[in-house]
Write a structure and sequence with these properties.
Elements lengths: L10 H15 L3 E3 L2 E3 L4 E6 L27 H8 L4 E7 L9 H9 L4 E6 L7 H10 L2 E7 L11 H12 L3 E5 L5 H10 L5 E3 L13 H9 L6 E6 L15 H11 L4 E4 L12 H11 L5 H17 L1
Parallel strand pairs: 3-4, 4-5, 5-6, 6-7, 8-9, 9-10
Antiparallel strand pairs: 1-2
The structure holds zinc ion.
Zinc ion binds next to loops.
Length: 314
């Protein structure tokens, strides 16, 4: 059941929204006793969930043990973001909630200036146009397409094709979470729907095996020929050596910048996974902000704010 269209603006939520706005607009925030100037960075991909599964039920296809950690609420997420200068986050619907966007929608309404959202949609549901519009009305700015080994069938799937067309009609982004071998499938869809905004998650997971495959990286770079295609430079904890400070990922980021330009790249942490020991939030942002010496200040601003702002907040 999907309850996105339910009204959530109770008095409690309005009070919380006011508090959240005050937090977000503060000129400085206090973390660990130190004053941190806000840089207004955007984290383009993180998840939140609530430990109360009676109030926010997870899908029967998942076990509660899949929720690791057991709790990762919006407030827990912001406690990691704000000391690092991150003021806004694009929330990505968590797989175990499937199409029930209740918690994410509540959070987006409670903190309207802080969060944007990318939802999960069942593209086989009819009429799809009504579904797409319903998600848009709920404030969603894109759809997540999670490949479960089926991505190679996407280009010829009529419902997937319709989703890509409708996303363009409604100015929503398609966000494929794919494996490296699925890049040609996304390439085929980008060719067919050149105006659809596309944001590929986590470098198409190149490096998840521990090895950055050059031929796959070449394929990912070729997606840059489609002018509306973007890449998330993200999930550093899961790629390459998978060890802070993730310096082995710098050549891959450099290639992305050369192919796409910083205006089509966006940094993201992929919390809560990025904040599980021995990883932490700051080391993810540091890779772009402090270690990527090949980036100009303008590049950094684009990757850490501008691109995500244009695609998910404008
Ligand atoms: Zn994720």
């Amino acid at each position: 059941m999907n309850t996105e269209s339910k009204p959530y603006f109770t008095r409690r939520h309005l009070c919380q929204a006011l508090t959240a706005t005050l937090i977000a607009s503060a000129t400085s925030s206090i973390a660990n006793g130190a004053t941190v100037e806000p840089k207004n960075w955007i984290d383009a991909h993180s998840h939140v969930w609530h430990p109360d599964t009676n109030r926010y039920p997870i899908s029967s296809n998942f076990k509660k043990e899949a929720m690791q950690p057991a709790s990762f609420t919006a407030e827990e997420l912001l406690a990691h973001c704000q000391p690092a200068g991150v003021q806004r986050v694009v929330l990505i619907q968590m797989s175990f909630y499937e199409s029930d966007h209740r918690y994410m929608s509540e959070v987006m309404q409670r903190y309207p200036k802080t969060f944007s959202g990318v939802s999960l949609i069942d593209w086989n549901r009819k009429p799809l146009q009504r579904e797409v519009k319903r998600h848009k009305r709920a404030g969603m700015r894109g759809f997540r397409m999670h490949s479960r080994g089926d991505a190679q069938g996407w280009p010829t799937d009529r419902n997937v094709q319709q989703l890509w067309k409708l996303a363009n009609d409604q100015d929503l982004a398609i966000c494929p979470l794919i494996n490296p071998e699925d890049i040609p499938a996304v390439d085929a869809l980008c060719k067919k729907f050149p105006n659809t905004k596309v944001v590929v998650d986590h470098f198409a997971r190149i490096g998840v095996s521990g090895k950055i495959e050059k031929d796959r990286l070449d394929q990912l770079c070729r997606l840059a020929e489609h002018r509306n295609t973007h890449v998330k430079t993200s999930a550093f904890y899961a790629l390459g050596d998978k060890q802070t400070p993730y310096l082995d990922l710098l050549p891959m980021i450099q290639r992305m910048v050369a192919a796409f330009g910083s205006d089509r790249l966006m940094w993201a942490s992929d919390c809560p996974y990025q904040v599980q020991t021995p990883h932490n939030y700051q080391s993810s942002i540091d890779l772009i902000e402090k270690h990527a010496n090949f980036l100009s200040e303008t590049d950094k601003t684009a990757i850490l704010r501008g691109t995500a702002e244009r695609v998910f907040f404008a």
